[in-house]
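A.,

Following up on our hallway conversation. C-alpha cells first:
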C-alpha cells in the first residue's frame, strides 16, 4: 500500500515522524530462501541490504534517503529502527522533469538537469547518513547521471553508505523495473513493474569508474541478475 501523500511530506520535512529514536537496530538474522507472493512478486534474501544495515545497526537517530516511491512498509521499518526517513519518488520526478520515460534528449539540457536536481535532491551538504538508491540510476543518461552522482556525494556524509541495484546483463534492450519493500534487515520484497528501456547499463568496471570519487564499491549478484552495490562515501 502506498504511503499517504500527507504523511509522506511529514517524513520528507523531518516532522515528528521518527519513531523510537533511542532504539537500537536488530542484528541481521540468517537469510531465508526466496518465496513468491504472486506472479510478479518475490521475497528473497539481500546481501546488499544486509550489508547496508550492518554498517548502521549500532547507531540510532540517523537520517536516511529512499529514492523509491514512499511506502508504509519502508517508512515503518526504518523509523522502528530509530532513524528518520526521507522519500523521493525519483522516477516520477524524472518523468515530470523530462517527459515520459525521461526523454534522453531532454536529459542533455543543463537547465532541465538543474531543475531536476532541485526537485529531487535539494538538500544541504552532508544531510544524509545513508541512501537506498535502488535501481533508479540505470534510467539516467550520462550527463544527468554524472550530476546526480555528484549531488549524492555532496548531500551524504563522509563514511556513510549507499545501496544501489544494477542489472548484471549489460546488453539488454529492456530491463525489468522493480519496486523494493524491506521485509527484514536481510530480506526484500521485489515487485515487478513491467519492463523499461535503460538509458545505460553497467559492468563492474564501469560502476567503479562511475563512483570513482567515492571511497569504495562492493558487489553482490542476485538470482534476478541484479548487481547489488554498496558504495561508501
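Then the amino acids I'd put at each of the 233 positions:
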Amino acid at each position: 500500500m502506498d504511503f499517504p501523500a500527507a504523511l509522506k511530506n511529514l517524513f520528507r520535512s523531518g516532522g515528528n515522524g521518527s519513531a523510537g529514536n533511542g532504539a537500537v537496530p536488530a542484528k541481521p538474522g540468517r537469510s531465508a530462501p526466496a518465496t513468491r507472493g504472486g506472479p510478479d512478486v518475490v521475497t528473497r534474501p539481500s546481501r546488499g541490504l544486509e550489508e547496508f544495515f550492518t554498517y548502521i545497526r549500532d547507531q540510532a537517530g540517523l537520517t536516511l534517503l529512499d529514492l523509491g516511491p514512499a511506502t508504509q512498509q519502508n517508512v515503518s521499518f526504518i523509523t522502528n529502527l530509530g532513524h528518520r526517513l526521507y522519500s523521493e519518488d525519483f522516477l516520477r520526478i524524472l518523468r515530470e522533469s523530462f517527459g515520459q520515460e525521461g526523454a534522453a534528449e531532454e536529459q542533455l539540457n543543463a537547465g532541465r538537469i538543474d531543475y531536476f536536481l532541485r526537485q529531487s535532491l535539494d538538500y544541504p551538504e552532508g544531510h544524509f547518513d545513508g541512501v537506498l538508491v535502488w535501481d533508479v540510476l540505470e534510467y539516467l543518461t550520462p550527463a544527468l547521471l554524472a550530476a546526480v552522482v555528484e549531488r549524492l556525494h555532496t548531500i551524504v556524509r563522509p563514511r556513510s553508505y549507499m545501496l544501489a541495484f544494477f542489472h548484471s546483463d549489460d546488453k539488454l534492450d529492456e530491463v525489468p523495473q522493480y519496486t523494493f519493500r524491506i521485509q527484514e534487515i536481510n530480506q526484500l520484497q521485489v515487485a515487478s513493474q513491467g519492463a523499461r528501456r535503460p538509458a545505460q547499463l553497467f559492468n563492474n568496471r564501469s560502476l567503479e569508474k562511475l563512483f570513482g570519487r567515492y571511497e569504495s564499491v562492493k558487489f553482490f549478484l542476485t538470482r534476478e541478475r541484479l548487481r547489488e552495490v554498496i558504495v561508501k562515501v
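The first helix runs from residue 5 to 13. Curious whether your intuition agrees with the design.

B.
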